[in-house]
Amino acid sequence: MEFLYDIPLLGLVIQLAVYLVDVFTTNGTIILALAAPIALGALCGVMNERSGVVNIGIEGMMLASAFAGWFAASIVGQAMAGAPGLAFNATPAILVGVAVAVLTGMIVSAIHAWLSISVRADQIISGTIINIVALGVTSYLNLLLTPLSPPTGGKFSPFIPPDWLVDIPLVGWLFKMFFQQGPITMSVILIVVILQVLLLRSRWGLRTRAVGEHPKAAETVGIDVIRMRYQNVILGGIFAGLAGAWFTLDYGNSFQTGMTNGKGFIALAALIFGRWHPLGAFGAALLFAAAGSMGTAIRTTPPTGQLGQLLTSIPEQVFAALPYVVTIIVLAGVVGRSTPPAADGQPYQREATT
Amino acid sequence: MSRYLRPLIVPAGAIALSLVVGAIVIWLTSPLVTRGGFDLMLPFTTYWALIRGSLLSVNALVDTAVQAAPLILVGLAVGLPFKAGLFNIGGQGQLLAGAVTAAAVGAMMSNSDPLVAVPAVLLVGMLAGALYGFLPGFLKAYTGAHEVVTTIMLNYVGIQIVAWAITGPLRDPASSFARSGDVGNAALPALFNAGGGHEAHLGILLPVVAVPLLWWLLYRSTIGFEIRTVGANPDAARYAGMKPRRLVIFAMTLAGALAGLAGSVQIAGEIHYMTAAYSTNIGFAAITVALLGRAHPIGILFAGLLLGGMQAGARLMQVEAGVPLQMVDLLQGVILFFLTAELIVRYVFRVRAQTGGLVEEVQTVTRTYGGQTTAP
Fold it and tell me: What interface predicted TM-score (ipTM) does this complex get?
């Protein structure tokens, strides 16, 4: 292979391709793990925006859930110390933590639903409120709790696939990528596929899309627009809650102030880049996570020769900014336009029956 | 009730209710603060410290003015686009663009004559912010890309630009950690020094200039009339021969300039250099300021002073009552909640519904988010 790299220009392209494949196959596990919260956040967005409710509060929902899940696990962990773990090291503390995180996501979503649907407030302001209050409450409580140093409630351990599976040539890394994961990350793939099928092939999906595209027409054929929107926004909270649980119960086992650190907004970017489709959003999340890994890989194991010089001359911040820049580009329609559902952001008011 | 007092009921009610919610949160968490039982007095000691730290001494007043200045400037940067039917969430990014440019030029001109260096730093910050506001304005006008998403994305691009600039080209070689050089002579001169680090710099005068200017622009000039018309009804504006595209770009660019100016003030007036991890929540607090002030320049002035006072008093609150600074952020979010869920305020204070609601023009903002609308 190496001799090909000496061809002018084309050699560089070949070397880059080989390098990209190498980075992706060796870091597949971490890329998928880091893509999980982005994908889950984006799925929360899919549920909201496909039924016509803009959600820029994903960041706040994730943060609130991450804190609540971690705190609940910590309390239960202290009360039930030494309880045996099940598969994935799932102790009662962790399971309660996940449940509380999911519930928190649903409660915060219910507030968003109430403001957006019933109050008919500006949905962007509603999302902003969630982001500000979630950051305020969690940092306030975290600062008060830090001196007490509450013990961690533990975290899921990743599944370890058997060696013979991982060692299969060519495709072994895929098994490692998809199976050497905690349960939340592993479930993401399943959720994405199910949601994609439901959204595009089921009665519920058709109704959801109708409510998001043309609520008046939907109401005319007997769909309860208000109910549908409430239901979908609150169910979307489950995904934001799972994303929150990923931070403090799957990937890590502690809470830090502001730890979601913009992941909720990358999720928003993935939602738009994936054109409001579950599969598209998942692909975008993988791409964004891979871009991040690429930035790190270039610092730690740069390719040799000219390509190495070329890649290391790119500031690593370029890779971090990539998700945001490509989102602006697709939204502006420079390369393939991305258009939101038609009724996204419009409150619905039922016409008075006389 | 006079027509001047009426619009104040809902904002004042929202502030009052949020203080009640804050008091409940403080009381509920008082065992964590005092390491004892529930303390019914803690909310009162907290608010008393907040008031003393923001109002009841010369130091406190100086702190409030210094904290309020950037909040008012960025508040105007959010409020002006509201009038044109645009939601600028990018105050944060525009502020960062202004700040990093001011840090660069400030470090370069640290030995120049202050009479040249100070205006130069303020001006380049404004220009950088203007450019950073022009971008989403242009994209909105000519491609229809919604400004809410583009400005959010640009906020995060801004963080990366700052990190790159400070660890790369702007890094001060004399420093052991990544920071830009000191602005030296380009620092904003002190107008009044109360001692003990409580210094009122030139920056506090900028809102005093910007607020009347913006009021004049919006309510007394032709372009202001056109901006308000586009915000209220873009179709009518186009029919009347106005150019919505140009107005959208103008509003966003001017907003960016104001936020960029706030960025220069932060660097040249407050910290005098920039670190790679420089962060602030001014850009987000400014959204509360703009909405609390109903997007009116005078309203934004008072809302900025209120939130600036809360920021200023927060330090004394943390020291004296032991309640973390973040209580203030929480209060700001809750104020915004009650402003939005106005019906709660109206129910509690028995006020009849007013026409227009929160900010009339805001109503058009989110409604243009969906795919039905094209470029203006």
Answer: 0.91
